[in-house]
Structure to design on (463 residues):
């Protein structure tokens, strides 16, 4: 990744769990907030002076100033300063237009052959429709994917989740890329892309979302990650896609917004026992359990699980809701069926149907992303729900999300996580969410939007 002429130029990639040092040197580390963000409010991932950033344009200006003050000239983001992304030096420059930063490259100039791997390795295309391939990918990720800074938790995406995440409408099998050892045929690295449509104000842009970049722990000195990124980028270019958005847990040039992770305890005793959270000052375990206790049944009349025949109504509800945000996905009925129709232990969706008119008035959803608990004798898995898309028109959002917490507790989740995007901030404190360690920075590649967004102006949640 240190080579500024690599094929990232003009291609927008969404990175979840892109290793931090890969950005600079091709070695592996973590950029994302930890899988569990253990230890709420332990002041990790904050500004260099220890203070959390403020919202909006002042956030980015503050980040720019802190970054420039805290690192030497020799360690600045040399790679990103060569790329068509927002630059720290441009923060506050109102003369720069919104939209693409650079025009697309002619398709005839896109490299037609795969990039060269070191001699011991070979490319494969991973067919995620087969049980055998899913098992291989699952094993690689389960043992080698993102861990928190203290090596207490590691993401544990299920095989069902991977198939859901990687096979949306119009997906390209060629964007699911693996690296094998030639002799043993062992899968040692993986990276994926999926197509998406995201709206920036009034413009809907085709993008590539890149995810699941993973290199086996024993091979992280082999510089496989940079060539993998270039290869998936090449394959994205071949489909004439040049813009997208990406996320990272580190500050790069230049976030369009910075979001905060919040956590709501559902099983507080387990969370404290495994080190995810701590017992509060002057709090006993019994008082803590009582504090987070939820009703046994949902409270909203007409609250029920989403079904197949609800797709048109949910699509209308969601599209209307997302239209108020500056950046949001452009979902159609096929997207809603794929991403939001309930799938056991993958995604849960509930709605409110008026008992009188039978109108669908409200909607909430969450996806399942457990983490392996490392080195604990009593527990092996942390079952986490992540808030996805929620729409409130008749039922107060606070009440709707309280019902979501109730059903998550009924389904034995340990914690319910949410970002402060969209209108989420309105319910977080009232429903006893606590701010975690993790910050998530959102970026656009080869697309400028200004001024910087408040988290409440962002209608996009990435897996």
């Amino acid at each position: 990744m240190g080579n500024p002429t690599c094929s990232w130029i003009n291609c927008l990639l969404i990175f979840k769990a892109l290793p931090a040092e890969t950005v600079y040197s091709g070695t592996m580390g973590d950029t994302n907030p930890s899988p569990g963000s253990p230890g709420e409010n332990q002041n990790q991932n904050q500004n260099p002076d220890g203070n959390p950033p403020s919202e909006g344009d002042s956030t980015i200006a503050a980040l720019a100033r802190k970054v420039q003050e805290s690192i030497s000239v020799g360690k600045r983001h040399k790679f990103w300063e060569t790329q068509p992304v927002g630059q720290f030096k441009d923060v506050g420059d109102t003369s720069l237009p919104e939209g693409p930063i650079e025009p697309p490259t002619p398709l005839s100039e896109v490299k037609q052959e795969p990039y060269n791997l070191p001699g011991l390795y070979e490319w494969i295309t991973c067919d995620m429709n087969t049980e055998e391939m899913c098992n291989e990918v699952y094993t690689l990720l389960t043992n080698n994917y993102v861990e928190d800074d203290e090596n207490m938790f590691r993401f544990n995406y299920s095989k069902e989740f991977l198939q859901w995440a990687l096979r949306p409408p119009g997906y390209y099998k060629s964007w699911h890329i693996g690296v094998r050892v030639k002799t043993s045929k062992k899968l040692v690295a993986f990276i994926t892309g999926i197509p998406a449509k995201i709206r920036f104000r009034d413009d809907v842009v085709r993008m590539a979302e890149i995810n699941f970049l993973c290199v086996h722990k024993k091979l992280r000195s082999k510089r496989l990650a940079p060539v993998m990124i270039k290869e998936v980028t090449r394959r994205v270019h071949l489909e004439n896609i040049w813009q997208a958005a990406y996320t990272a847990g580190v500050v790069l040039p230049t976030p369009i917004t910075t979001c905060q992770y919040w956590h709501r305890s559902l099983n507080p005793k387990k969370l404290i026992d495994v080190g995810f959270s701590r017992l509060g000052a002057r709090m006993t375990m019994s008082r803590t359990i009582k504090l987070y206790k939820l009703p046994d049944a949902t409270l909203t009349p007409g609250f029920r699980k989403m079904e197949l025949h609800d797709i048109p109504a949910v699509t209308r509800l969601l599209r209307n809701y997302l239209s108020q945000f500056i950046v949001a996905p452009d979902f159609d009925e096929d997207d809603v069926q794929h991403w939001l129709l309930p799938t056991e232990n993958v995604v849960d969706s509930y709605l409110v149907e008026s008992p009188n008119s039978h109108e669908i008035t409200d909607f909430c959803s969450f996806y399942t992303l457990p983490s392996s608990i490392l080195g604990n004798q009593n527990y092996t898995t942390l079952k986490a729900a992540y808030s996805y898309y929620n729409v409130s028109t008749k039922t107060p959002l606070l009440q709707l999300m309280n019902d979501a917490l109730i059903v998550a507790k009924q389904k034995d989740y340990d914690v319910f996580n949410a970002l402060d995007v969209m209108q989420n901030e309105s319910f977080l404190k009232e429903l006893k969410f606590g701010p975690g360690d993790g910050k998530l920075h959102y970026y656009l590649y080869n697309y400028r939007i200004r001024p910087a967004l408040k988290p409440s102006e962002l209608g996009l949640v990435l897996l």
Summary: The radius of gyration is 22 Å. The first strand starts at residue 13 and ends at 15.
